[in-house]
Write a structure and sequence with these properties.
The protein is an alpha/beta fold and 328 residues long. Helices cover 37% and strands 15% of the residues.
């Protein structure tokens, strides 16, 4: 029997992007598996980001049968070269390579959100759908659920339980705090970060800093662990307070209550199906959200390291919201 003819391949290409983007894209694979239950589904991605983090996460997604690692600098799609030619102008066309040979469908998700968001941002038109819907529409699927598909193993949960026990966190109101984004323009100013931790302690919480590259003296920290360790630890926390970063999306994925602190980015696009609430910068400055325009960094405006909206984040409201979420 010719396996390729009876079970034609479906290829999804997403070679770069952050943890949050990848998680919000994962319902695509649920939708594809529901639509094509007998077809093998291959993800073409890259180990270039954060030491293979995207591949590790994809191994926990539902609906992916094969994962191919392709360096986007060497091979990418024609559309990506056009949109992001600054980095990928010399790459070869990925659609002509073996990773897509014989495929019934090839779905390029490298630029779907950018193609949707950028024109609306420039016109100052509010978005009308979150990123998970944008990716699913680009793939032509309507999954039974738009929640991320990440699966935590029993061994990973057992490791997290031991981690909590060893640190005497059991029975405490553990709140994960992540206020540094991979992109510094989404990060909370350091003074406000410290103040937030102090406010949480004063309210009876035990804050745990879970920023990958940051430890704060005198505060519990969870840093330097592999991505597959982060998911079960965040799952055991009572809540998470985070800027628009991978940790916010991990909390949303594992259904831990999360308060998202948004500055230049739009919570309507990035909170997805998460259980929680967002501090929306529209209530703080008239120019928000402005991720693609960034008036604080352009047009001769002074830039003090963070956007004005993030400098105005109402910390009392942040603490009130996380308390409300974990007590309702």
């Amino acid at each position: 029997m010719n396996l390729r003819k009876s079970l034609p391949l479906i290829v999804v290409i997403r070679q770069f992007g952050g943890i949050g983007d990848f998680l919000m894209m994962s319902p695509v694979f649920r939708g594809l598996k529901e639509k094509y239950p007998k077809n093998p589904i291959r993800l073409v991605t890259s180990a270039q980001y954060m030491g293979g983090t995207l591949i590790t996460m994809a191994q926990h997604f539902f609906g992916i049968d094969q994962i191919w690692d392709v360096d986007p600098v060497q091979y990418t799609t024609d559309r990506t070269r056009v949109v992001q030619g600054k980095w990928y102008a010399k790459s070869k066309e990925i659609l002509y390579e073996k990773c897509c040979e014989g495929a019934e469908r090839v779905i390029d998700l490298n630029n779907s959100c950018l193609d949707y968001e950028l024109p609306m941002s420039r016109k100052r038109v509010p978005v009308d759908k979150p990123r998970d819907r944008i990716w699913c529409e680009a793939a032509g699927v309507e999954p039974s659920s738009y929640s991320p598909t990440y699966t935590i193993t029993s061994d990973e949960r057992a490791w997290a339980a031991k981690y909590f026990k060893d640190r005497n966190w059991e029975g405490k109101k553990i709140i994960g705090v992540s206020c540094l984004s991979k992109d510094k323009d989404r990060s909370l100013p350091e003074a406000k970060y410290i103040e937030l931790l102090q406010r949480l302690v004063a309210r009876g919480f035990t804050p745990v800093v879970i920023d990958r590259d940051r430890a704060i003296t005198g505060v519990e920290c969870f840093t330097g662990h592999r991505i597959e360790c982060v998911f079960p630890v965040v799952e055991r926390m009572q809540g998470v307070v985070s800027v628009d970063s991978g940790i916010m999306h991990i909390a949303g994925t594992v259904r831990t209550p999360v308060v998202g602190i948004f500055g230049p980015t739009d919570p309507a696009m990035r909170m997805g199906e998460y259980y929680g609430s967002a501090i929306d910068s529209r209530a703080l400055v008239p120019c928000a959200p402005c991720w693609y325009e960034r008036p604080c960094t352009h047009q001769g405006q002074p830039h003090a390291g963070q956007f004005l909206c993030l400098q105005r984040t109402p910390l009392s409201l942040v603490v009130d919201e996380i308390e409300r979420l974990i007590t309702t």
